Amino acid sequence: xxxxxxxxxxxxxxxxxxxxxxxxxxxxxxxxxxxxxxxxxxxxxxxxxxxxxxxxxxxxxxxxxxxxxxxxxxxxxxxxxxxxxxxxxxxxxxxxxxxxxxxxxxxxxxxxxxxxxxxxxxxxxxxxxxxxxxxxxxxxxxxxxxxxxxxxxxxxxxxxxxxxxxxxxxxxxxxxxxxxxxxxxxxxxxxxxxxxxxxxxxxxxxxxxxxxxxxxxxxxxxxxxxxxxxxxxxxxxxxxxxxxxxxxxxxxxxxxxxxxxxxxxxxxxxx
Length: 271
Known about the structure:
The protein is α+β, with helices and mostly antiparallel strands. The protein contains one helix and 18 strands.
């Protein structure tokens, strides 16, 4: 038989939440033994592993929960139209659909057509994150990512209004990955940064506040200075103690000698 016995629209794009019609027509008159079968394979699943969605052989049989969300455009499908309609497309509906028609009194075998359904989704609310330590003269990276979005979202970063623009060589923005690298931080970098994820269906945003601190190298220098101060303080205390101890010893010795001399003058000194 000719593969044109079954005609489909191979590529279908639909926005999430809208109805999607998967067109399938056939060039024969339904007779005894006529059957229609629709199968579905999730993205990445081979066509040979597609699972049955519905089956018609004079009676209509639905599989699992498809009946509540899908309907035949023509019911019964015996007048050349085997199309189906998804009432409210979801992300999980995306994938490969196979329409297969069998009419043994007219064809020597069955005819089938393949349809790829793509469900378009606006970007989900992205997540903004900061990587690195926000110390003076450090480099940090702001990241932004939406878990959902088709077509793939484009990301753009903006600072809060009424702020001085950053020098062009102080940052690198990647609109595909959503990263914003900031180089050699200073007080001028402080503020709120907003990331916007957008595609043809909509946009969503998140914000993050950057505070630049005097840590890092400054903290190390401060720690070294504090250590030197403590060493000097300890040295001073030690010297003071030794000097005081020696002075006291001299004073005690001198007092003992005076007492001895006084005793000799009075009587005698046994020392």
